[in-house]
Write a structure and sequence with these properties.
Blueprint (H helix, E strand, L loop, with lengths): L4 E8 L3 H7 L3 H7 L7 E7 L6 E8 L3 E13 L3 E5 L10 E9 L2 E9 L4 H21 L1
Antiparallel strand pairs: 1-7, 2-3, 3-4, 4-5, 5-6, 6-7
Family: Belongs to the AHA1 family.
Pfam families: AHSA1
Length: 140
């Protein structure tokens, strides 16, 4: 187990409130939590409060259902969202922090994910999160 981390920043042409709220809305989560082509989200739940939990089932054509769940640690609308991230490919204490900064053209979204079991796992998550952020922009 390591303290490897990744950071991705993406400009999204929507106001921070709209981008932030998408992360807490189960219907929106089902539209953009798609880390690879061909994946779907048949199930998404969110108890959007500090200490509340979320669960997202990502369905991969080859791998079947991949449950992802966690607990909301910080909900500071529309500035910061932090949650634990538990999946078949993560460490128990893996954490994702999202920072939403207003810009003239919308929002700069910074995703910082910490704690991965290996460099390969970190790299795979970087690709997955990049695809998710692109799908988020399209879904909005």
């Amino acid at each position: 187990m390591t303290d490897l981390s990744l950071e991705i920043t993406r400009a999204i042409p929507h106001p921070p409130e709209k981008v932030f709220d998408a992360w807490l809305n189960p219907e929106m989560l089902a539209k953009f939590m798609l880390p690879a082509p061909g994946m779907t989200v048949p199930e998404a739940h969110s108890d959007a409060k500090v200490g509340g939990r979320f669960k997202i089932i990502m369905r991969a054509p080859e791998a079947g259902d991949l449950p992802h769940e966690g607990e909301y640690k910080i909900i500071d609308r529309p500035n910061r969202l932090q949650f634990t991230w538990n999946s078949p490919y993560s460490q128990d204490d893996s954490t994702v922090t999202l920072d939403f900064t207003p810009t003239e053209k919308g929002t700069e979204l910074r995703l910082h994910h910490i704690r991965f079991p290996s460099q390969e796992n970190r790299d795979n998550h970087e690709g997955g999160w990049s695809a998710i952020l692109a799908a988020l922009e399209t879904a909005l």
